[in-house]
Each structure stands twice: as C-alpha cells, then as structure tokens.
Amino acid sequence: MSMLAIGQTVRYGRTGTVGKIVALIEEDNSTFAELDSTGLYYRVDQLTAISDIVHKETESRDFRKDLEQEQERVREMNESAWQNTDQSCEGGG
Predict the structure, then answer these.
(1) By the 8 A CB rule, do 8 and 21 touch?
(2) 73 domain-assigned
C-alpha cells in the first residue's frame, strides 16, 4: 500500500466516492482520511490513489437541486391528482 497524503485524490472502492484528502487521523491503530467531497472519514487501506484528471471527469451532482426538483414534481402530481376526479365523496359499502 502506498502512503497517502493530504491533498491527494483518492477513490473509496465500495461506493465509488472520489475526493481529495483534507485530513488524516489515527484511531485504534487504524489511519483514517477525511475526504472533501463527503466530509466523512475512510480507512486509508480502503482507499485507492487516482489522478486528478479522473477526479475532474467524475460528474458532481447538486443534491439540493435534485431534491428541489423532486419536491416540485411531487407537488405538481398532488395538484393534478384532483383534476381527474369529479370530487364526489362516494364510499363503497
């Protein structure tokens, strides 16, 4: 295993998460690296060093924008749901 350093671009293989190392800590005889992309710590033996070019090619997503779009889509569905009914209150039984 190569030694990883702050500022190095790495990939966490289990999820495909890519980011730059912003901090290294040692705890319980294991070393962990914090990634800028998630703010989470990963065991360094689970990380693979990659080139910055690969990091730039990965698509970054704006999850807030995705959430806002999904909320808007659900709101529109809820509003249009009443358009297909006669608004009567019939019950079966």
Answers:
(1) yes
(2) yes
